[in-house]
């Protein structure tokens, strides 16, 4: 590992700038010149079209799916009924097959201050075939609703697969545009990696949990048809002792089930899945992660299990970014970085996806693991074994854009822009993945930022020299 060779060039540039009395700064990467009009993100009102409940007595609503096991042969189907528990069964069948199967789920309710939830159903469908389209029906005689999904191909090193990436979505008009752009992206995402902060219900008086319901109705048009892989953000904590709500993550854990036990995790906030050629590790910025904690112990045992001959692409999701050059949530991810960054470098993580900061940023491949309190080596350095860090908390939530950046742009920061958007991670084979970020203000196919990822295990070549 060595410092950026560019730092000495920078030095020379600074000297010459001083000499020439110019006002140029010695910036690291690129700060986009695109300046989005700073506007408040307005939440869509309760009567909006995207929030309408389906018609019919006790009709299933808020339907969403996620992966239900470790390898992609199971799906968790979740939905809510408002009038009575109703049917707990999912009926499903393979496309072109007449044989209908049934799976039984469980129903849950919870109270939050003076809110009482509807009947929340979770049903895991198992033993599915890979790479197969299935139809499924929830509800009963009163009102049935039919959806479909396609299972991923069998886990293997050269299986192409396309992930969408969104974070900090919320339920504003901008959120609706982000989701629409993701849906209309010609590079069709097959599953969503969601980096936390879902509904922003906690920005309402008493964390009005009706906003958890409206959010789930809003995203149903995508989440009922392709799995969204969930990460817990700070807006999922819902810790409100002032109204007697002291159990963190209560609404989130009742509404969003994840297959954490399949990866020997002991809590739904950190877990892993394999999907096609990717190994995805979800971490929790808001659960203890220090030495001896359950999450720490789990991750230490988890990383050596990743077999890059089986799943070449190692992707980590965590809500709070470690490398963030905006003046928001500055250094909030620092303690987790100190704990886990050496492991990420050792195990050659390809990409770390985070949200939290309501803007977009992509890092160079850097690490900052040499520091030992005594040696003063506390600057990020170029490191080809290190992941690229992406901050993509730009879904468009009610809190608005983060547009105040630290200046000059740090060398580790390759690209940053304060715009709402989504990204696509398109795995081609074991060596190549095409990554692109799309800002909401452009046409669906426009890539505002993009790069070819070279796999850190199979093709650890420096991409920045492309
Ligand atoms: C809950 O309490 C708030 C005020 O404390 C009130 O505005 C709201 O209508 C109540 N909601 C329900 C469902 O009772
Ligand atoms: C949300 O987006 C969808 C799809 O573009 C559109 O049909 C709908 O009218 C939008 N709703 C709102 C409230 O913006
Ligand atoms: C890793 O995966 C490959 C391909 O599936 C398999 O042949 C090999 O045995 C696995 N290695 C270990 C240590 O499990
Ligand atoms: C940007 O953030 C810095 C550091 O927190 C602060 O000093 C400055 O006033 C902010 N600028 C604006 C325009 O808000
Ligand atoms: C992997 O995909 C890249 C990009 O599509 C392509 O250039 C390369 O030839 C592929 N490698 C193999 C072994 O097919
Ligand atoms: Fe957040």
Concise summary:
It is built from 6 helices and 26 strands.
Q: With helices defined by DSSP (H or I, 4 residues minimum), what is the helix count?
A: 6
**Radius of gyration, in angstroms, nearest whole number:** 22 Å
Give the biggest sheet: 8 strands, mixed
**Coarse structural class:** alpha+beta
Beta-strand residue percentage = 25-35%
Spatial sequence of strands, sheet with the most strands: 1-23-19-22-18-17-16-15
Which regions are unreliable across 5 or more consecutive residues at pLDDT < 50? 1-26
Bound molecules: 2-acetamido-2-deoxy-beta-D-glucopyranose, fe (ii) ion
The global form is globular
| Rounded average pLDDT | 93
End-to-end gap: 20 Å
| E-strand count | 26
Helical amount among residues, as a percent range? 10-25%
- In terms of quaternary structure, the protein is single chain
Write a structural description.
This protein is of the alpha+beta class. Helix content is 15%, strand content 27%. It is built from six helices and 26 strands. It has an eight-stranded mixed beta sheet with strand order 1-23-19-22-18-17-16-15, with no helix packed on it. A six-stranded mixed beta sheet has the order 14-13-12-24-25-26, covered by helices on one side. The protein is globular and about 70 Å long. The two termini are 20 Å apart. 48% of the residues are buried. One 2-acetamido-2-deoxy-beta-D-glucopyranose binds next to helix 2. Its EC number is 3.1.3.2. Belongs to the metallophosphoesterase superfamily. Purple acid phosphatase family. Pfam families: Metallophos, Metallophos_C, Pur_ac_phosph_N. One of its GO terms (molecular function) is metal ion binding. It catalyses: a phosphate monoester + H2O = an alcohol + phosphate.
């Amino acid at each position: 590992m060595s410092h950026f060779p560019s730092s000495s060039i920078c030095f020379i540039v600074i000297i010459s700038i001083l000499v020439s009395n110019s006002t140029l700064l010695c910036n690291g990467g690129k700060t986009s010149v695109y300046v989005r009009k700073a506007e408040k993100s307005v939440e869509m009102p309760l009567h909006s079209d995207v929030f309408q409940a389906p018609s019919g007595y006790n009709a299933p609503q808020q339907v969403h799916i996620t992966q239900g096991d470790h390898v992609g042969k199971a799906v968790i189907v979740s939905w809510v009924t408002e009038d009575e528990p109703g049917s707990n069964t999912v009926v499903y069948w393979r496309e072109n097959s007449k044989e209908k199967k049934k799976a039984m789920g469980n129903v849950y309710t919870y109270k939050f201050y003076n809110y009482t939830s509807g009947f929340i159903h979770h049903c895991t469908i198992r033993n599915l075939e890979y790479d197969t389209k299935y139809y499924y029906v929830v509800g009963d005689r009163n009102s049935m609703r039919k959806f479909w999904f396609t299972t991923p191909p069998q886990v293997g090193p050269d299986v192409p697969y396309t992930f969408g990436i969104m974070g900090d979505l919320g339920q504003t008009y901008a959120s609706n545009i982000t989701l629409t752009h993701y849906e209309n992206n010609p590079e069709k995402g097959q599953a969503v990696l969601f980096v936390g902060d879902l509904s922003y219900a906690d920005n309402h008086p008493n964390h009005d949990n009706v906003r958890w319901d409206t959010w789930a109705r809003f995203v149903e048009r995508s989440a009922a048809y392709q799995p969204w892989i969930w990460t817990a953000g700070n807006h999922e904590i819902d810790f409100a002792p002032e109204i007697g709500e002291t159990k963190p993550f209560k609404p989130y854990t009742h509404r969003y089930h994840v297959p954490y036990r399949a990866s020997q995790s002991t809590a739904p906030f950190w877990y892993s899945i394999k999907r096609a050629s990717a190994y995805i590790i979800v971490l929790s910025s808001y659960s203890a992660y220090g030495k001896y904690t359950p999450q720490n112990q789990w991750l230490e045992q988890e990383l050596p299990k990743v077999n890059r001959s089986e799943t070449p692409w190692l992707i980590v999701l965590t809500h709070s970014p470690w490398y963030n050059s905006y003046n928001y949530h500055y250094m909030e991810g620092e303690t987790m970085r100190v704990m886990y960054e050496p492991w990420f470098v050792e195990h050659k993580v390809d990409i770390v996806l985070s949200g939290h900061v309501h803007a977009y940023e992509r890092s160079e491949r850097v690490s900052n693991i040499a520091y030992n309190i005594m040696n003063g080596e506390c600057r990020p350095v170029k490191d080809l074994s290190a992941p690229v860090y992406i901050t993509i908390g730009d879904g468009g939530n009610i809190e608005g854009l983060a547009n105040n950046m630290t200046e000059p742009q740090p060398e580790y920061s390759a690209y940053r822009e304060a715009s709402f958007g989504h990204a696509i991670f398109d795995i081609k084979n074991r060596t190549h993945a095409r990554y692109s970020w799309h800002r909401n203000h452009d046409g669906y196919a426009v890539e505002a930022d993009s790069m070819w990822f070279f796999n850190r295990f199979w093709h650890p070549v420096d991409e920045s020299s492309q």
